[in-house]
Amino acid sequence: MSTKILHQSLNVFIEGSHIFNIANLGGISSSLNNPASFGVPTSRAGQVFGSGGPRAFRLGGRFAF
C-alpha cells in the first residue's frame, strides 16, 4: 500500500510602476531670447509602459502542485 502526500501552493502578486505618476520631462529650453520660456520643459518621455508612461499595474498568480 502506498500513501501519497500532495503539496499545493498558490502565489498571488501585484506589481505597479509609476504609481505616483511623476512625469519624466526633458528638452529644457535654454534660450535667453525669450525669458518666458527659459527653463520650461519642451518634451516628455515616451508614453509606453516602462519608459515614463502612465501608471501601470499587473496582477499575476502562480499555482504549483
Give a quick rundown of the structure:
The protein is mainly β and about 60 residues long.
What would you say this structure looks like, in words?
The protein has 65 residues and is mainly β. It has one domain. Helix content is 0%, strand content 40%. It is built from no helices and four strands.
What is the strand and helix layout of this fold?
Elements: E1 9-17, E2 25-28, E3 41-44, E4 56-64
Antiparallel strand pairs: 1-4, 2-3
Average of pLDDT: 80
Distance linking N and C termini: 23 Å
Number of helices: 0
Gyration radius from CA atoms, angstroms: 24 Å
The outline comes out as rod-shaped
How much strand content do the residues show?
35-45%
User: Quick one: biggest sheet?
Assistant: 2 strands, antiparallel
Strand order of the largest sheet: 1-4
Low-confidence stretches: none
Number of strands: 4
How many independent structural domains?
1
Helix content: under 10%
Structural class: mainly beta
